[in-house]
Here is the input.
Amino acid sequence: MRVLVVGSGGREHALCWAIAGSPLCTKLWCAPGNPGISEVAECVPIGGLDIPALVLFALDNAVDLVIPGPEAPLVAGITDAMARAGIACFGPTAAAAALEGSKTFTKEVADAAGIPTAKWERFEDAEAAREFITRRGAPLVVKADGLAAGKGVVVAMTEAEALAAITDFMETGTLGESGASVVVEEFLEGEEVSFFALCDGTTALPLGSAQDHKRVGDGDVGPNTGGMGAYSPPPAFTPVLEADVMERFIRPTLAEMTKRGTPFRGILFAGLMLTEAGPKLIEYNVRFGDPECQCLLLRLKSDLLAAFAAGVEGELAHYSLQWHDRAAVAVVMAAGGYPANPRRHTLIGSLALAEQILGVHVFHAGTELLNGQLVSNGGRVLTVCATGRTIASARTTAYTAVDTIDWPDGFCRRDIAWRALAPAHG
Here is the structure.
């Protein structure tokens, strides 16, 4: 198969790394890619949202399968455009990608399918939202309705924080059209887990679970980020819980999407809160999470490309996935100043030394080559991953690799997987 991956982050590097190892892959491109990806795929200078150019490239190069990594091209309709050109694309249509593109749509689907989720209200008028918040009181969660690159959710522990989010999203317009309407939800308490399913429109296969670390600082303090690290599998998400989520969340969602005439094919990512009353849906995403993807693919024994091909062909009912009996930990190294104002073009060295450590993989995200030298070019710059017999041993190896990398401007959280290693989890 001739394969085109779309994207340029750590998730896409992990996808390319896994696909490059498939005996089915005869040629692999990535658009636009990054310096790390260029070691396993041919990078093509086409942006992820330049869908006409991506379609033309796929036609000119006889691409058999397109795999979009990020959510924006999916919401913008890359799958639809490829289908019109007769090219297979493993991802939802624009109509089905509304599960991530619209918080309201997700809530409506969840309610229609009887999926446990937080109580919610939608607002297009800022004053009405403020009146509701004042009446309900904190804590509350305020979400911009549209795509916001991880910046559209405020967990407000006080009324003042919730009201400030309304002003920020709806009146100041910091998120543009994405924040023109908002969803205000009840605050859920518990442990958060990311669960993934491989879907072909009718059948869904469990694709593993992980736990992300959203806040920038140790102990979960500071502003939310795109994710500072992850580990898999999370002990709190037991096999019994996984079976329950498949039965009460994933399959009813597929059935409801089919009922609406928008069957879901691709990666369905359920953000779950494990509450005292059981799991509840926080949100759906329509692609792999980053850095969860990096953890999951290190644990996957099966051929990822074969799995994607089965998903495109509607053959998942006859397919199964195998996993290595190992844990994986991913530590994100970010540029100084992240998330507000990350510094760019700072030198990064000794990556080759880090990757010589047994069990270590370093995935590039915000990097570029400048005058032949590797430099930072983004907020989240590297994902340093390691596998191990246990989460504790994988974490130790990951931090050994982090400390081997010569990047004075970079920083990371030092407590990734702390929940898994807390006394409550043994």
Observations:
- The radius of gyration is 21 Å.
- The chain has a mean pLDDT of 95.
- The longest strand covers residues 265-275.
